Amino acid sequence: MTRRVMVDPSRCVGSGDCSLLAPDAFELDDEDVAEILPGVALLTDRQLDEVVRACPTAAVVVDEG
Amino acid sequence: MPVVAASVVVRRYDDVRDALFHPDLSRALDVRSFEDGNPRAGVLSTLHGPGHKLRRRLENPLFRRATLVADEQEHFPRVIDRIADRSATGDRDLLALAGSMAVVLAARRAGIDHDGSEAQLRELFDLGVELAQGAALADTTEDPEHVRRRTEQALERLEDGYVGPSRQRRAALLDEADRGELDPATLPADLLTVALVARRRGELDLDDGLLLREAGLYLHGGSHTSAQTTCNAFAFLLGVEGPARPELLAAAATSITVAQQVVHETLRVIPMTPEIKRRVVADTTVVGHQLKAGDTVVLDVRAANRDPDYYGPDSDRFEPGRALLDGASPWGLSFGAGPHVCIGRSAAGGVPPRTGDVADDASHLHGQVARMVHVLAARGVRCRPGQTPERDGRTTRASRWRAFPVTFEAHADDVVQVAGR
């Protein structure tokens, strides 16, 4: 099973929780919208779930393909 | 008499969390509590929808990782150690002492200037306490009109003594930057500055009155709750709440990682706001309940934080470092969740160690409350014989203290000695 991680920019308010929990996997761009770094591939499923649950606007989405 | 009447009470962890994400539940409970000339009108924590999103976008950058790491590594230790050196000796009131530490950090984030003296820090903390009473109007045991008047007086004093001059100083700095006489990178990174910048750009309509109220929110949100949580932590460690935990007291004195576990568990067992209230803004369904616009939902955070499905069969017990089930936050839902989650949560509580990570990594964020607990424990804090801490009876929120008399031993070694008594 593959997983695809996405950020919905219309939902993201730049709270930065993703980059606080996983600075190697997420950072905020110049518009304060979360963007995904290559390090996201190194997150375990549980770590990724922690990031998804921490996002206050449910902007981080994981598609389990 | 309560300001609002409950129509639905939600208690399970998942249900409370789902409700906190629900788009049709607003924090603005009623006109008298949050609008209509009220001292809290228009502050971040009462906004809903697009207005709330715009304000969060403005203020979120104040809590970026780089800022928080710099705070943890430089600012928190300097401030907390300096105040501990000055005041963590002999007989003290722990609430006032922790308050003087937390208020420095809160004022810095808000952009409220002060001279650092004990007198000004005490006044700022006391003003924050008054504003906290106004923020918890729905739970007051006093005459709400009386609380409203005191809140307005506190705001007047805050404006005259602190926020007004602070705002003027920042406006002058922005003028200098506009004229090219000051590097914009050296401008203060605080609420007042970012709000004034946004106002000059026409991005947000924030008048001086609203800026004052917002700065007041930062002041009490960042100081009162941190000081109260510090007292709650020591209530557990010193045996005011349940049996004394001398082994934990000694461990928190030597390890900030343990201190953070103590703070997270304290927040879980004694959430600062035991019940979160929401108003339904459109006919909808909330965790299976069909509700109409105007109905009220009470989210029982205290019960959710003790949900055995997430925290185990001993969830009523204070056990820092307890094993968490998948998806459970170590502090429960005490900072809320969803769009209205506490904006200062990472400054206050740090970041929970990610599964598989080591918490004492150099860049790990422990939070200012853990730093305060760590430093105060190392100073040998203990209960003052013959004097019992007193809960704050001015609110139905049984999470707050009115007075917390303690005595400090001189050295950290004494913690072990105290623990053995």
Q: Can you put this structure into words, describing what you see?
A:
The complex is a heterodimer of chains A (65) and B (421). Chain A is an alpha+beta fold and 65 residues long. Helix content of chain A is 23%, strand content 25%. Chain A has helices at 17-21, 45-54, and strands at 3-7, 26-28, 34-36, 60-64. In chain A, the strands form 2 sheets. Chain A has a two-stranded antiparallel ribbon. In chain A, a hairpin with a 5-residue loop joins β2 and β3. Chain B is of the alpha+beta class and 421 residues long. Helix content of chain B is 50%, strand content 9%. Chain B is built from 16 helices and 11 strands. Chain B has helices at residues 13-21, 31-34, 50-59, 65-87, 94-110, 118-135, 144-178, 191-200, 208-237, 246-254, 256-269, 301-304, 308-311, 345-349, 368-378, 413-420; strands at 8-10, 25-26, 90-93, 275-280, 284-286, 289-291, 296-300, 381-383, 390-391, 401-403, 405-408. In chain B, the strands form 4 sheets. In chain B, strands 1-7-4-2 form a 4-stranded mixed sheet. Chain B has a 3-stranded antiparallel sheet with strand order 3-11-8. Chain B has a two-stranded antiparallel ribbon with strand order 5-6. In chain B, β5 (284-286) and β6 (289-291) form a beta hairpin. Mean pLDDT of chain B is 88; it is low at 1-5 and 412-421. Chain A binds chain B through residues 13-17, 19-23, 28, 32, 44, 46-47, 49-50, 53, 56-58, and chain B through 21, 53, 56-57, 60-61, 63-65, 68, 326-327, 329, 337-341, 346, 351-352, 354-356, 363, 365.
Quick rundown:
The complex is a heterodimer of chains A (65) and B (421). Chain A is built from 2 helices and 4 strands. Chain A is of the alpha+beta class.
